[in-house]
Amino acid sequence: MPIVLHPADLRGKADHGWLKSFHSFSFANYYDPKKMNFGVLRVLNDDFVAPGMGFGTHPHDNMEIISIPLEGDLEHKDSMGNTTVIKEGDIQVMSAGTGISHSEYNKNDDKPVKFLQIWVIPNKKNVTPRYDQITIEKEMYHNKLFQILSPSSEDEGVWIHQDAWFYISETDDSQIFTYSLKKDTNGLYVFLLEGTIVVEGHELKTRDAIGLWDIKTVEISTKRNSKFLIMDVPMTF
After folding, report:
1. Quick check: helix, strand or coil at residue 26?
2. Euclidean distance between the first and final Cα of the chain, in Å?
3. pTM, whole model, 2 decimals?
4. What order of strands is seen across the sheet that includes strand 186-194?
5. 147 to each of 17, 44, 52, 109, 142, how far by Cα in Å?
6. Which H or E run includes 68?
7. Which positions of the chain have pLDDT values less than 70?
8. Phi, psi of 66, deg, nearest 5
9. CA–CA gap between residue 221 and residue 196 (Å, rounded)
């Protein structure tokens, strides 16, 4: 069972004044050859956007882009004609495919936006661009693993062009979960948003992460109230 540990304080950092971002993997001006990706998981940015500020219109292609707001309201506009506001409890996905442009702005002038920006390398290139979002309630993932993403439009959550499954959980103290990976060729990346958890004997604090592969099941236990995201992704692409 190979593992990789990514402590919160060893992530890449960018401070643009209006944007503070922490990079789990190499991104923009942050480069670490040992942190290029975890399988098809290419980007995991932990972003803080100042009131009234945001990302101007910019392009993407051939990438599955997932946004998970943690606090505040983020306004999204794209070249497909979508204009939406996403907030805590929403899960947004874009299949960039042949090409898409979009912008993201903090909708409010009095409080910041905090959100995760995640990129997954797709298993199909040049697909027709698409957009989707869902809203989940806290009771849906309280003390259980709740699926928020999969490869199937008929399954729970949003879907992407990749054999990947994401789950979220917000727990009380002393919860134990055993997660079975969906495919033998997949690995599991666990990102702790809040609290303290133990993953296969390794303790994680807030914003720490761990990746594991060549394993069929993973045990996760909580030492106090915690919130975490798990990403079951192919290790090759």
Report:
1. coil
2. 20
3. 0.97
4. 3-6, 209-212, 186-194, 226-234, 165-171, 146-150, 158-159
5. 35, 18, 32, 33, 12
6. strand 64-71
7. none
8. -115, 130
9. 9
Q: The tokens of 177 are what?
A: 């979960």
Residue type at position 15: D
What is the rounded distance in angstroms from the CA atom of residue 131 to the CA atom of residue 16? Answer: 28
Distances (CA, A) of 198 to 27, 170, 201, 221: 28, 14, 6, 5
Residue 161: what pLDDT?
A: 98
Neighbours of 41 (CB within 10 A): 25
pLDDT at 110: 93
- Distance (Å) of CA 33 to CA 25, 113, 196: 9, 30, 28
Domains of the chain, first to last: 11-135 (2.60.120.10), 138-234 (2.60.120.10)
